[in-house]
Amino acid sequence: MSVKTDLLSVHRAILVLTAFLITALFASCGGGSGGSPSKGGPPTLTSLNPSSVEAGSAGFTITVNGTNFDSSCEVEYTSDGELLSTFSNAYVSSTELQAPISASDVAQIGAGSVIVGCTDGGGSLPFLVTGFPRIEIEQAANDLVWDPVHQVIYLSVPPTVPGGSGIAVLDPVTAKLLSFTPLGNNPDVLAISDDGQYLYVGLDDTSSIQRFTLPQLVADISFPIGVAGDFPFDIQVEPGAPHTTAVSLGVPDSTTPASAGVTIFDDGVPRPTSVPGPIDGGLGTCYCGSLQWGSAESTLYSNNSMSTGFDFYSLSVNANGAVLSQDYPNVFSSFNGAFWNSIHYLPSTGLVYADDRTVVNPSGGIVLGTFNLPAGAVGINRMVPDSTLDLATFLFQANCVYDGPGSCYIVSTFHLSDLSYLNSFTVTNIQGVYGAINMVRWGKNGLAFNTDTGQVYLVDITTLVQSASTAPTYREGSQRYVSVRNPQRILTTSRKGLLGASSNNPK
User: Fold this and answer.
1) Residue 65 lies in a domain
2) How are strands ordered across the β-sheet holding 351-354?
């Protein structure tokens, strides 16, 4: 090798090294293009789309939304703590990752997670595979109530359905009607004694209440509620006293139907002293709508969702009847739509929980807090508290886009103890104009609600109530859609406000 050749090799090496150093310096200053964008910090995860699917669904693509993603990011899909799939080519942009989820990964009900791992960090979001999001039963019902003693749901059927009005008995486990008892005069609001002995049925057209003995639904006593033309707006049986009922009285064809006061009945006999309503005039009146007995037989609670006073009422009850003892204004926050804002009392906590998400200490009418709306939830709410599970279950109207008829709803759970959010899933194709009329819990993990267009829905909320250490159970053979009667889309309940939900929007 000549000296000239050696010098040429050295010169080329110097040029290569110089080019490398310039390129490295240029890249370190932010130059160049292609590859992942410049990082603005560790990646964060904000949402999943979808955030839940039904067990047995076909394969789909899940989108992870967030920030500061790059091509190093991987997506892992787990179910009940078990890693099922890993995806290394998930990068779409700095704000989006995508991964294909197979049908086998969502074949069974479970509570899972979508985990993202990148060079600079990662995170995870919950993902639910639900049992049956809903069973739709084409059955018009003015009201429904759960009987925990006999494990059935009673429905008050309006006279607009084929076969006429009456009381239907629904087995929620099989989604089948077990029996139908004809009953005229427009059966509406229902109440059941806590010992499962009696079912009370408000009859709107005759201003009366019919009592049945259970479980055979044998007609017992029938009694008038007071002024002809009024109707039973709400009925609540006193805990531990199946013969005693509190009844709030309504005025039909009114923008403020719950305006005729409250009366206490013993086996259909009214106690002499009643709380008057605004329609009666005088002192101590209340727009008493929804009723709840307190921890003692001497206390009854109610609320005003007829006017913007949004009062919370405490009533004193004794052998002579009931009187208004305390009126706390501006406690609640909304009318909650055409079917109003209902309250729920739990003796275990001593607190009142409202459909509008307000939590009240009845001693002093003090607002202790409010359950937060989950992402995507809007409009009218229904809720059921459950002290045995430390759980509040809400049904929210939702703002979502999907290809199909009906509306979207979000079912969410919260801890009663601190009002903290627990979990949610979305159910679609829910029929109705003004939303759910009433909602009850049934069994261990069941939810049921009726709508104003003639449907009853059964919802499995197993994945929303189980603890992290409890393995979910899959309900084999559950039917997603069950038609048990021909639908009729006209309800006859007098409790609906004439102005409708459009004029009763929450604040």
Assistant:
1) yes
2) 343-346, 351-354, 358-361, 366-370
